[in-house]
Amino acid sequence: MADKNISRVLIAFDFEDQSLIALAQGLNFSKAIGAEITLVHVIEDGGILGKNLTDAQYDEIRKDVDKRLQDQIGKISSTYKGMKVNSLVARGRVYEKIIEIAEMLQVTFIVMGCNGAGVLKRKFIGSNALHVVRESKCPVLTIKGKQHRNGCKNLILPLDLTKETREKVSKAIVFAKLYGAAVRVVSVIFTKDEFIVNRLTRQLSQVKDYLEKAKVECTAEIIKGIKGEENLAQCVVDYASKEDGDLLLIMTQQEVDFTDYFIGSSAQEIILRAEMPVLSIIPDSGRGSGGKVPRKK
């Protein structure tokens, strides 16, 4: 049984360029929360290496992967003194094995690379990263883009001010304090109704006051958009880029009766469009205890 008092981070690792970028960000993230790490490589059934493998062939590939993972752990250990790093090799569908191992190890977070946002990529909901985000019982940090700051200076927090916001803001405060980051709050609205705009402006001011009372540097802005999930995502991503964002924090929905959060295709669009790390957190009212955020000891 895993010790629940220890923060654990699972980093999906396949030795490709985006995986190496995700590893670097995952290590910085793990250092910030004081976590131990498990690198997981999945030899995919049906993939180029995994298709029709005999047990003997699989064992040979596994030995080679094990050696390469140990080499990687050696590099990590020389840079991150005192950080505990483990590795696992599994065989099967990538997202299924990541979820299975995450639950077995009771990890606090999953970190993985996310490739491309072309038209086909956006419509292909079977991608490994999106499957993991949708099915994981713990928060998932997806890493897209090539250039990222080592730490986090600006945390981007999209809010739907017509819904409950306290849980989202509270989690943003935890991460802002871990990194010493400012929180940049953005809300996208799709109406010109003056009454609604004024009400949302007051709500946003209350959110800003809440952050400031928690001694977190913050800004808050309302953006007018054209209604539609893709437009919503692009508005958020454009704002994050304008504010030099380092981490975009969103809530994800995993059951059809939850409607209070960035859900479904909106979350997918944000994950696939953002050229910065996106941390997808499950609401406390969602499955398991995935909404809980550790505090560095």
Describe this structure in words.
β1, α1 and β2 form a beta-alpha-beta unit. With 297 residues, this protein is α/β, with parallel strands linked by helices. α3 packs parallel to α5. It has 2 domains: 8-143, HUPs (Rossmann fold); 154-281, HUPs (Rossmann fold, 3-Layer(aba) Sandwich). 42% of the residues lie in helices and 20% in strands. It has helices spanning 17-33, 55-79, 94-105, 119-123, 128-135, 166-179, 194-213, 229-242, 264-273; strands at 8-12, 36-44, 85-92, 109-113, 140-143, 154-158, 182-189, 218-224, 247-251, 278-281. The model is unreliable at 117-126 and 254-263 (pLDDT under 50). The longest helix has 25 residues, at 55-79. The chain has 9 helices and 10 strands.
Write the layout of secondary structure elements.
Elements: E1 8-12, H1 17-33, E2 36-44, H2 55-79, E3 85-92, H3 94-105, E4 109-113, H4 119-123, H5 128-135, E5 140-143, E6 154-158, H6 166-179, E7 182-189, H7 194-213, E8 218-224, H8 229-242, E9 247-251, H9 264-273, E10 278-281
Helix pairs in contact: 3-5, 8-9
Q: What radius of gyration results from the CA coordinates?
A: 20 Å
Largest sheet report: 10 strands, mixed
Question: What would the average pLDDT be, to the nearest integer?
Answer: 82
Topology pattern, helix = H, strand = E: EHEHEHEHHEEHEHEHEHE
CATH hierarchy: architecture of the largest domain: 3-Layer(aba) Sandwich
Low-confidence stretches: 117-126, 254-263
Q: Just give the CATH class of the largest domain.
A: Alpha Beta
User: How many structurally independent domains?
Assistant: 2
Strand content: 15-25%
N- to C-terminal distance: 21 Å
Strand order of the largest sheet: 3-2-1-4-5-10-9-6-7-8
Number of helices: 9
**What is the number of strand segments?**
10
Instruction: Bin the helical content.
Output: 40-55%
Predict the CATH topology of the largest domain: Rossmann fold
Determine the CATH superfamily of the largest domain. Answer: HUPs
User: Which structural class do you get from the secondary structure elements?
Assistant: alpha/beta
